[in-house]
Amino acid sequence: MAAQDNALARAYGKMAGGAVPSAGDTDERVLRGFGVSSGKAKGPVKVVTNVEEAAEQLYPGDVLVTEMITSFWIPLFPRIAGMITMRGGMLSHGAVVAREHGLPAISGVEGVTSVLQDGQWVELDADAGEIRICDKGE
């Protein structure tokens, strides 16, 4: 059965300035989403589900992984190297503020909070909308 054409995903991909994430990718070390704030970052993952937890557990240089960013998260932005979310788009509050802070950010990464684990190292390329899982020394 051929993959269905998703006009909304194609339109969003054009607006986000990158390719639409492909479900057929075979490289398990690369996750894809939509780059919502340009740049590259590398660091250890910190998966958090609420801002109170984040305030206690985020360290400078961490890559924040969460479901969605709201305005309550913004004071934590100076601590982090990059941000990955399951939800949000180019005009979401988190994306706009990430661009203001010069913080690389990728949104629309389905299931990222269960795929990535605390302490795992990743390299974000928000321009390409890609997250590469890497070894600490890479």
TrEMBL record:
Signal peptide residue numbers: none
Species of origin: uncultured bacterial symbiont of Discodermia dissoluta
Listed name of the protein: PPDK gamma subunit
GO molecular function: transferase activity, transferring phosphorus-containing groups
Residue span, PEP-utilising enzyme mobile domain: 60-129
InterPro entries in the record: PEP-util_enz_mobile_dom, PEP_Utilizing_Enz, Phosphohistidine_dom_sf
A Pfam family: PEP-utilizers
Domain of life according to the entry: Bacteria
Upper lineage: Bacteria, environmental samples
PANTHER family the record matches: PHOSPHOENOLPYRUVATE SYNTHASE-RELATED, PPDK_N DOMAIN-CONTAINING PROTEIN
